[in-house]
């Protein structure tokens, strides 16, 4: 009898019932199909905080066990964890996308045929846009030259793989990967609306959906504001532009992508906001309390092309506020970056016309310096505390903002980061104030700068190709927005527009300033084949004395303009060719 | 004359009913069958004389007469029998639970039974000994038999003992001034400049104002004691008649803690337990028993990990208490801020900083406390029916058990404000002129109850036994067993289960030639349908040479049993989850858009319907002998077993992108693949000798094992990197070539892949094993055995000397062959770590010849912190584990008295260690210290 009682126990003779699901579950549950694609959404490579900037000449970390810090010091190998991250997560994302695409036709999103068609279109477009996105980051991280000099990409997967597939496959060429990316992005742009907004009348509904009997309510249900923040047509186009810029760059010029094509791809996105006229006047301050306020998740700031869903937090501030404001002071901008900010009149500080005063280095400077970087004596935080990052005897145990006062907390360069953070956040655990943040994925200024860079190379500073604006005009607008050269008609820019070389340097510098701490420079330096080993410098202020000093060397070998394919996969698969040098 | 020993009958007794009269076939029984001479095996008991290999018994009741043990655990049970090293039986791995612990046949916890309740423990170490217990016993089993009631007048034993735990040694940390001096050195070495000024260090060193220049010694007598008490009492009551017998035990212990900071002075742990075991003869044919036990366990602790903090909180970081009167009277605001605090004691307020707004010392005074409360209730009952009326020799027995365990934490959680002083020096006197408050005082007064958990175990078994003897020569026994148990744990959907049917047949011809066969049908719900049954088999043959030919008459050879055994066990205990054969897509992670968000879907693995049991294939031989009227006993085994088909995700076949971390998806299936082979031996020798009134017994035993990886899924560039063919408990690391003597030497080597941007004199240099000019992970080699499942060789020595009423017992243990790496910041300081006294031995240009640590660095010191043989040390040691002197008052004193006997004892545990690396082995870093224990006690019988 007892035996009988025990036989009913789950897990004894048969396992307790679980709701076992597999790939085919998608066919019966539309939402489950969306969740498969959701895995690719989760795996996206965007970060809310700066990480690889501390391995460039822009910043150092005060966390001495930071992986990027040790990489920059010479520890980067094909076995370093971060060498593996994108390889793993990007290709895995493509797998989820391919599983989704393979089954998509069998999924019933709506029993109403027109709605089902619209959902199919949107989700196919999202999936293809995401596939393009993942390929872009794969090419950025792993595209490179083999020992024989061939420019290789990664594997192209358009079908799901499983445990039965032989994975010993050679890498596709960079160009093949790029072509796949462009094709995916093109199809996504065709299928998706530019952005997800609610339409107000039937006239606005695309003809192809009118043709199958859809009205504005149907359209808004599928393509409306409630879908905002998912992959849309504008985003797919922006990624296509990013990829084209990468491919046209010196490190990848064998890809066949021309600067003119790259400029064209950027212009497609920019033309939608009217080109230079559409440059958001507060675009350089999109992250501030004034701009974000209480963020909406169904509409966006004019600067943002794509961002994460907003939520209240204070983690950025916990990490990066100076210690007196209860932060850990993690990302420390370098003197190199500070020096890159021109004088208020637009001249680089190395130019005598800038009137730069080395004994009063933070006056009379590009306003963006103060927007993005906490310099000694500037104020920060809810109560406007003065931050003293000079070398000084601490007043009490809380006074740790001074240069190297305490390892792991204080600045190592004499600067703290200000960008990306909100002044009205308080990370003090006893008195915590958390606020909404816009974590951008792509913003318009990046596309403007991409256009300027490509257009200058293709058509010179003032050439416009088939578009209504030149590199010069873009840079002029950006510098005007920043507030430099406003008194003298930006004489330095006027001078630079006469020479594509000077203009190239200026454009790259503007890109460095506008996009600092956005995890872009690490790969920018590489695609430009620029100097990777400029030592990071800091500023030691004692009283009225300003002395720069070397904080951290950079130790990248020349082959490190291309990243490594993960060691273990190269070891396992004889057909995977490693990039040269690794 | 044949010794009594040879006359024991083939005894087979069911279940745990050691004292029940045994229905054996009619034979003329000259000697009573003593429970002492029976050994509990799986579902049966056999006479010691008939014991083949693979099992070993400790008679705890007898042992406790001369060696009072407070707790049963791996340490207190080590060194008594061959084959058990305190961690494992025959070196089996301890993954997924390891050794199965059974109390009266029911799966239970070793740590929840007081030794006074225990009659004996059998260690079922060979595969032949556990085959009938099914999948969950595949790494050996420990069977604990509790005491049972004896027929006769009511008997009462009262034990009481009290003693002191004395800390062996505390870790040694540097004070503030030394710390700051060395930290400056480390910062300069790392390319920085001194952080602490000479003045600051000087003022700290003088100790003139410890409130401004903090120097906190967390291990000082202010916060830590060097002893604490432990007291145990219990009372046993037993009695009964022919129809019913009972045994009860009521026990209580309580012990304190080394900590005394703040509320920690009230820390304690206690346990109250009651057991009642009842045996009833319901009729001439039916007997039954019921066992119940209830335990109440409680522990009160101050909140927070004080010992952990001793290893991390640097001495100069905080000043926990600052006198209020150091505040300048004119600083009215500061004074007011501080006086608003709820936590001013003895005129002191709590010090803090923005980065250390709270600290563990203040926590101990002001953050409240918690109580851990655990209750267990255990019930098991069995019945045995003599079916001789149906078929001669047939009996039936069944057992059912149900156990409940619940636990939870009760706590008062307060928060508190600390205050950051701003100091100024007026005319040579430090005064506080400003105060910043961090945090706030909050005393809710609400009791928080959390972390509650519960567990329920059900265990059932039933068996038919058929026992016959023909012609006084053919002794035959067969049994058919069905058993299952299941444990559910709160918060876990799936239960831990075991189900099997067993068939056991054993036969001997005149106690001379033995054949023993065991087989089990093992069922696992973790495998795919159609793959859920496995068959375990075991066969043993034995010969007792003492009963052959001329030896039969010999008094010199009382017993000489050689047995050979071969087994193949199937187990699923190392299959950690259910449904591992299916991809079983799950939901997890989170993605969001607009107003929406949801968990994503992904597979947990690739599917493999062919997933099957893990196999243990074993061959062993055992020789047991007793000589010269048991003056000498030997017992030795050799064993070899393969563990095949361990589960892996075969990573050499699949690229890294088959799995991700967040969401935790995988397309890689599980596969039975890896294999290990364990070889080893054990031995025990015991000699007994009487010299007049002086009796001496000396036992020596040892256990050796070695487990190699015989099959691994791996791919490496260099042959020496392969784990296959190496010990499974391998320590891997670099081969260190010593310190760089000069910066130039350091610059000439490429060790940058290890993560230090610049190397200098005093950093560690490693061997470029593959000669590729670069030191990287490919240069890591096998360095030695870690002894993860117990020391490779474990030694036990037991000495008993008796003279009149005195008994001296000495127990020594030894462990040999294991290496370890000095790890953690105590031995490898870097960055912002607290410095221990080890840091004094760092490399400096002056101490280059004698340094035992690389130069200090205030960065992560990635180069020097790599695992390498530089940090390796031997764990070889010999320990005096126990000494006890016992005095039993002569029984003649108690004739006719109420008191029937008195025993007194004094004992010491862990008194001495002889080891080259004794200091490392005896120092607990970041945890409570190891203890010696001095105990006195008495037993009074009524």
List keywords for this structure.
A: 582 residues; Serine Threonine Protein Phosphatase 5, Tetratricopeptide repeat; two-stranded antiparallel ribbon; 21 helices; B: 942 residues; mainly beta; 22-stranded antiparallel barrel; five-stranded mixed sheet; 9 helices; globular; disordered N terminus
In short:
The complex is a heterodimer of chains A (582) and B (942). Chain A has 21 helices and 14 strands. Chain A has helices at residues 2-7, 25-28, 30-42, 67-75, 81-104, 113-142, 174-191, 207-210, 216-223, 233-248, 259-271, 289-292, 315-320, 335-340, 367-372, 444-459, 471-482, 491-496, 500-514, 521-527, 567-572, and strands spanning 59-61, 144-145, 151-152, 304-307, 312-313, 331-333, 373-374, 379-380, 385-386, 416-417, 435-436, 440-443, 536-542, 545-552.
Q: Which outline of chain B best applies?
A: globular
Q: Which whole number gives the mean pLDDT of chain B?
A: 93
How much is the radius of gyration of chain B in Å? 32 Å
Strand content of chain B: over 45%
User: What is the chains' assembly state?
Assistant: heterodimer
Regarding CATH, which class of one domain in chain A? Mainly Alpha
CATH topology of one domain in chain A: Serine Threonine Protein Phosphatase 5, Tetratricopeptide repeat
Catalogue the unreliable spans of chain A.
Answer: 1-7
Helical percent range of chain A? 25-40%
Q: Major sheet of chain A, described briefly? A: 2 strands, antiparallel
How does this model look, in words?
The complex is a heterodimer of chains A (582) and B (942). Among the domains of chain A are: 25-50 and 77-281 and 565-571, Serine Threonine Protein Phosphatase 5, Tetratricopeptide repeat, CATH 1.25.40; 442-534, no CATH class. In chain A, 39% of the residues lie in helices and 8% in strands. Chain A is built from 21 helices and 14 strands. A two-stranded antiparallel sheet of chain A has the order 1-6. In chain A, strands 2-3 form a two-stranded antiparallel ribbon. In chain A, strand 13 and strand 14 (545-552) form a beta hairpin. With 942 residues, chain B is mostly beta strands. Chain B has a domain at 176-205 and 217-452. Chain B has nine helices and 41 strands. Chain B has a 22-stranded antiparallel β-barrel. Chain B is globular and about 105 Å long. Chains A and B meet through helix 1, helix 3, helix 4, helix 5 and helix 21 of A and strand 17, strand 18, strand 19, strand 20 and strand 21 of B.
């Amino acid at each position: 009898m007892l035996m009988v009682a025990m036989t009913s126990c789950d897990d004894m003779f048969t396992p307790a019932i679980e709701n076992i699901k597999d790939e085919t579950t998608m066919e019966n549950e539309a939402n489950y199909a969306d969740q498969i694609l959701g895995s690719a959404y989760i795996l996206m490579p965007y970060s809310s905080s700066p990480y690889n900037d501390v391995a460039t000449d822009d910043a150092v970390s005060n966390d001495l066990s930071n992986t990027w810090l040790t990489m920059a010091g010479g520890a980067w190998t094909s076995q370093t964890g971060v060498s593996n991250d994108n390889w793993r997560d990007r290709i895995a994302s493509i797998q989820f996308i391919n599983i989704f695409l393979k089954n998509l036709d069998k999924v019933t999103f709506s029993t109403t045929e027109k709605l089902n068609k619209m959902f199919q279109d949107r989700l196919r477009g999202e999936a293809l846009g995401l596939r393009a996105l993942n390929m872009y980051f794969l090419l950025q991280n792993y595209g490179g030259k083999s020992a024989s000099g061939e420019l290789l990409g990664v594997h192209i997967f358009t079908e799901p793989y499983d445990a039965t597939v032989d994975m010993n496959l050679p890498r596709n060429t960079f160009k093949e990967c790029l072509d796949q990316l462009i094709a995916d992005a093109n199809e996504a742009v065709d299928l998706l609306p530019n952005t997800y907004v609610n339409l107000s009348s039937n006239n606005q509904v695309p003809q192809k959906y009118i043709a199958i009997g859809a009205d504005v309510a149907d359209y808004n249900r599928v393509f409306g504001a409630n879908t905002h923040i998912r992959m849309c047509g504008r985003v797919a186009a922006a990624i296509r532009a990013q990829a084209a810029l990468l491919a046209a760059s010196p490190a990848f010029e064998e890809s066949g992508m021309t600067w003119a094509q790259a400029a064209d791809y950027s212009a497609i996105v920019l033309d939608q906001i009217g080109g230079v006229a559409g440059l958001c006047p507060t675009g350089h301050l999109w992250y501030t309390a004034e701009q974000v306020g209480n963020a909406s998740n169904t509409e966006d700031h004019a600067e943002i092309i794509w961002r994460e869903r907003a939520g209240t937090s204070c983690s950025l501030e916990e990490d990066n506020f100076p210690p007196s404001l209860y932060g850990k002071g993690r990302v420390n901008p370098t003197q190199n970056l500070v020096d890159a900010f021109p004088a208020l009149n637009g001249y680089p500080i190395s130019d005598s016309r800038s009137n730069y005063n080395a004994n009063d280095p933070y006056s009379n400077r590009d306003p963006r310096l103060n927007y993005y970087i906490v310099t000694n004596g500037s104020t920060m935080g809810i109560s406007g505390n003065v931050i003293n990052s000079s070398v000084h005897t601490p007043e009490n145990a809380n006074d740790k903002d001074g240069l190297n006062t305490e390892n792991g907390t204080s600045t190592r360069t004499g600067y703290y980061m200000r960008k990306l953070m909100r002044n009205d956040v308080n990370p003090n655990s006893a008195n915590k104030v958390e606020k909404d943040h816009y974590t951008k994925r792509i913003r318009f200024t990046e596309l403007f700068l991409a256009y300027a860079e490509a257009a200058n190379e293709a058509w010179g500073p003032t050439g416009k190709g088939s578009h209504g604006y030149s590199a010069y005009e873009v840079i002029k607008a950006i510098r005007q927005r920043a507030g430099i050269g406003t008194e003298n008609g930006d004489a330095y820019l006027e001078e630079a527009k006469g020479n594509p070389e000077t203009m190239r340097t200026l454009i790259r510098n503007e890109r460095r300033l506008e996009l600092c701490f956005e995890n872009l420079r690490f790969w920018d330096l590489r695609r430009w084949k620029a100097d990777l080993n400029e030592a990071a410098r800091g500023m030691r202020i004692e009283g009225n004395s300003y002395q720069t000093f070397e904080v951290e060397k950079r130790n990248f070998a020349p082959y490190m303009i291309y990243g490594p394919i993960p060691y273990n996969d190269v070891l396992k698969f004889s057909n995977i060719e490693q990039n040269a040098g690794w | 004359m044949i010794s009594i020993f040879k006359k024991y009958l083939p005894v087979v007794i069911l279940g745990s009913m050691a004292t029940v009269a045994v229905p054996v076939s009619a034979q003329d029984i000259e000697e009573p069958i003593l429970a002492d001479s029976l050994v509990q095996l799986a579902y049966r008991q056999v006479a010691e004389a008939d014991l083949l290999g693979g099992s070993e018994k400790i008679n705890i009741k007898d042992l406790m007469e001369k060696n009072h043990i407070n707790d049963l655990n791996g340490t207190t049970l080590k060194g008594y029998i061959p084959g058990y090293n305190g961690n494992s039986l025959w070196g089996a791995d301890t993954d997924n639970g390891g050794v199965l612990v059974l109390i009266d046949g029911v799966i239970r916890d070793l740590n929840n039974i007081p030794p006074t309740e225990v009659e004996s423990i059998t260690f079922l170490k060979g595969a032949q000994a556990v085959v009938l217990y099914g999948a969950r016993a595949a790494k050996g089993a420990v069977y604990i038999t509790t005491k049972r009631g004896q027929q006769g007048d009511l008997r009462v034993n009262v034990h009481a003992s009290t003693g002191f735990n004395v800390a062996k040694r505390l870790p040694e940390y540097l004070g503030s001034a030394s710390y700051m001096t060395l930290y400056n050195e480390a910062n300069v070495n790392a390319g920085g400049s001194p952080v602490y000024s000479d003045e600051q260090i000087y003022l700290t060193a003088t100790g003139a104002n410890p409130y401004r220049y903090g120097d906190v010694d967390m291990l000082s007598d202010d916060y830590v004691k060097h002893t604490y008490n432990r007291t145990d009492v219990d009372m046993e009551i037993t009695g009964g008649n022919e129809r019913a017998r009972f045994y009860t035990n009521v026990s209580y212990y309580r012990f304190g803690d080394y900590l005394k900071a703040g509320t920690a002075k009230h820390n304690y742990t206690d346990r109250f337990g009651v057991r009642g075991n009842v045996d009833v003869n319901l009729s001439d044919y039916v007997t039954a028993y019921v066992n119940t036990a209830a335990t109440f366990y409680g522990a009160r602790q101050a909140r927070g990990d004080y010992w952990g903090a001793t290893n991390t909180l640097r001495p100069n970081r905080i000043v926990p208490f600052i006198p209020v009167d150091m505040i300048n009277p004119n600083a009215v605001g500061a004074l007011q801020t501080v006086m608003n605090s709820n936590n001013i004691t003895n005129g002191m307020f709590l010090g803090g900083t923005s980065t250390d707004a709270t600290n563990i010392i203040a926590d101990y005074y002001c953050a409240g406390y918690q109580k851990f409360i655990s209750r267990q209730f255990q019930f098991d009952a069995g019945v045995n029916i003599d079916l001789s009326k149906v078929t001669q020799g047939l009996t039936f027995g069944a057992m059912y058990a149900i156990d409940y365990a619940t636990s939870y934490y009760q706590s008062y959680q307060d928060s508190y404000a600390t205050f950051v002083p701003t100091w100024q020096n007026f005319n040579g006197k430090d005064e506080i002129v400003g105060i910043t408050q961090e945090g706030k005082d909050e005393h809710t007064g609400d009791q928080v109850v959390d972390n509650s958990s519960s567990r329920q175990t059900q265990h059932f078994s039933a068996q038919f036994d058929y026992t016959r003897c023909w012609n006084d020569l053919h002794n035959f026994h067969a049994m058919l067993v069905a058993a299952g148990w299941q444990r559910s744990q709160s918060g876990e959907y799936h239960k831990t289960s075991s189900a099997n049917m067993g068939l056991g047949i054993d036969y001997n011809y005149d106690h001379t030639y033995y054949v023993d066969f065991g087989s089990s049908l093992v069922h696992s719900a973790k495998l795919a349908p159609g793959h859920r049954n496995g068959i375990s088999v075991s066969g043993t043959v034995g010969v007792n040479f003492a009963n052959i030919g001329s030896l039969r008459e010999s008094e010199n050879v009382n017993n000489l049993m050689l047995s050979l055994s071969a087994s193949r066990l199937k187990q699923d205990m190392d299959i950690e989850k259910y449904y591992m054969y299916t991809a079983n897509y799950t939901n997890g992670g989170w993605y969001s858009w607009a107003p929406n968000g949801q968990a994503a879907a992904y597979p947990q693995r690739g599917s493999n319907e062919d997933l099957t049991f893990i196999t243990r294939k074993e061959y062993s031989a055992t020789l047991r002998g007793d000589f010269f009227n048991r003056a000498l006993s030997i017992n030795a085994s050799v064993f070899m077993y393969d563990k095949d088909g361990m589960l892996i995700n075969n990573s050499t076949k699949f690229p890294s992108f088959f799995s991700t971390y967040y969401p935790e998806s995988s397309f890689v299936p599980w596969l039975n693949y890896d294999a290990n082979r364990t070889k080893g031996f054990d031995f025990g020798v015991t000699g007994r000798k009487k010299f007049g009134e002086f009796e001496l017994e000396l036992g020596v035993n040892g256990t050796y094992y070695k487990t190699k990886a015989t099959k691994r899924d791996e791919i490496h560039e260099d042959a020496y990197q392969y784990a296959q063919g190496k010990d499974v408990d391998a320590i891997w690391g670099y081969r260190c070539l010593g310190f760089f003597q000069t910066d130039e030497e350091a610059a000439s080597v490429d060790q940058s892949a290890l993560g230090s941007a610049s190397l200098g004199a005093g950093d560690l240099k490693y061997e470029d094993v593959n000669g590729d000019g670069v030191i990287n992970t490919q240069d890591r080699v096998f360095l030695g055995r870690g002894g993860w499942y117990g020391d490779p060789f474990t030694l036990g020595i037991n000495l008993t000397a008796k003279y009149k009423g005195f008994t001296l017992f000495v127990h020594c243990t030894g462990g040999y062959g294991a290496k370890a790496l000095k790890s953690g910041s105590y031995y490898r300081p870097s960055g912002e770590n607290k410095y221990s006294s080890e840091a004094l031995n760092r490399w400096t240009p002056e101490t280059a010849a004698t340094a035992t640590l690389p130069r200090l660095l205030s960065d992560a010191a990635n180069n020097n912190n790599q695992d390498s043989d530089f940090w390796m040390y031997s764990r070889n040691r010999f320990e005096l584990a126990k000494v006890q002197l016992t005095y039993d008052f002569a029984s003649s004193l108690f004739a006719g008295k109420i008191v029937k006997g008195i025993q007194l004892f004094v004992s010491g545990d862990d008194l001495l260690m002889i080891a080259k690396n004794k200091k490392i082995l005896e120092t607990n870093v970041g945890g409570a210290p190891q203890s010696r224990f001095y105990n006195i006690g008495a037993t009074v019988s009524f």
